[in-house]
């Protein structure tokens, strides 16, 4: 599954031009708590979250994030989007809830990341 | 590790050494080697724009030195959680990263107010984070447990109304 497939499945909006949507996504993790997200140290992962502050982008400096899906219609401010752009980290936003987004992706065959 | 500090306050301390690493950790402290590189960074209290930068820079440096990527992630996560702890819970402090050829020795020291019960603070889910900190997605009560999970050795020295010193060792 690629990020492009995920954008389609979640009817999501890509938050900046030029993001690499052809990246292969092997697994995903969903949480609104930073320390929970930091449990994903074992493999590159897609993150689904409702957190939109700059620390979410900084997480990508610590662990390998393939991209971030912001759920529940939340969108980060422009400075946060710029931080992601600098790092080449694709950002997409969906109006779906965290539960629904995760369910759809899981049903489509996207597994949980190893923790 | 910091005998003078222990003597000065009535400190409590917490030690964790990963099984089979006892000898390596003891050797490290006994040898008293000079680090090859030292990175020092101030961490202001409640400033979440700066918190995390030190670990990010450290990870980049170690990546250039060829450290394995999973070990890099462990170092980055342990360092990041400790930086966030200083920013979220203290009146500010600093991060000192001592890079050796076979390990990283990170020191986080703050200006208080200290941890009254370290054992309790190590319990997954226990948190004293305030609303501001929680709104940003912190305060899961997993900071110290996450540090321990990613470290080969962890030493915490603190007491109420005293500085806290967190020392982390991770071998390459």
Task: From the structure above, extract its key features.
heterodimer; A: 115 residues; alpha/beta; Udp-n-acetylmuramoylalanyl-d-glutamate--2,6- Diaminopimelate Ligase, Chain: A, domain 1; 6-stranded mixed β-sheet; 5 helices; 35% helix; B: 172 residues; alpha+beta; 6-stranded antiparallel β-sheet; 6 strands; 24% strand
Largest sheet composition of chain B: 6 strands, antiparallel
> Do you know the CATH topology of chain A?
Udp-n-acetylmuramoylalanyl-d-glutamate--2,6- Diaminopimelate Ligase, Chain: A, domain 1
**Helix-and-strand structural type of chain B:** alpha+beta
Helix and strand element order of chain B:
HEHEHHEEHHHEE
CATH superfamily of chain A: HprK N-terminal domain-like
Percent range for β-strand residues of chain A: 15-25%
Total helical segments of chain A: 5
The spatial strand order of the largest sheet of chain A comes to 1-5-4-3-2-6
User: How much strand content do the residues of chain B show?
Assistant: 15-25%
* Oligomeric state: heterodimer
Strand order of the largest sheet of chain B: 1-5-6-4-3-2
Averaged pLDDT of chain A, please? Answer: 95
> Cα distance, first to last residue of chain B?
21 Å
Rough shape of chain A? globular
Q: Characterize the biggest β-sheet of chain A.
A: 6 strands, mixed
Pfam families (chain A): DRTGG (PF07085)
Protein name (chain A): DRTGG domain-containing protein
Subunit structure (chain A): Homohexamer.
Organism (chain A): Cloacimonas acidaminovorans (strain Evry)
């Amino acid at each position: 599954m690629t990020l492009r497939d995920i954008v389609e499945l979640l009817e999501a909006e890509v938050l900046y031009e030029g993001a690499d949507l052809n990246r292969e996504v092997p697994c995903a993790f969903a949480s609104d708590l930073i320390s929970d997200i930091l449990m994903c140290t074992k493999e590159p992962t897609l993150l689904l979250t409702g957190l939109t502050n700059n620390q979410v982008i900084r997480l990508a400096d610590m662990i390998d994030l393939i991209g971030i899906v912001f759920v529940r219609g939340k969108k980060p401010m422009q400075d946060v989007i710029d931080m992601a752009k600098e790092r080449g980290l694709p950002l997409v936003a969906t109006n779906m809830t965290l539960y629904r987004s995760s369910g759809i992706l899981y049903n489509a065959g996207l597994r949980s990341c190893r923790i | 590790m910091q005998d003078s500090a222990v003597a000065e306050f009535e400190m409590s301390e917490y030690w964790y050494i990963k099984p089979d690493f006892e000898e390596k950790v003891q050797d490290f402290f006994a040898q008293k080697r000079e680090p090859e590189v030292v990175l020092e960074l101030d961490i202001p209290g409640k400033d979440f724009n700066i918190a995390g930068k030190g670990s990010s820079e450290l990870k980049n440096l170690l990546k250039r030195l060829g450290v394995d990527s999973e070990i890099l992630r462990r170092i980055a996560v342990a360092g990041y959680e400790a930086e966030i702890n200083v920013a979220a819970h203290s009146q500010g402090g600093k991060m000192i990263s001592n890079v050796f050829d076979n390990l990283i020795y990170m020191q986080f020291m703050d200006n208080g107010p200290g941890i009254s019960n370290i054992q309790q603070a190590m319990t997954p889910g226990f948190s004293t984070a305030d609303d501001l900190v929680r709104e940003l997605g912190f305060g899961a009560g997993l900071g110290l447990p996450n540090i321990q999970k990613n470290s080969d050795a962890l030493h915490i020295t603190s007491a109420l109304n005293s500085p806290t010193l967190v020392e982390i060792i991770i071998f390459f």
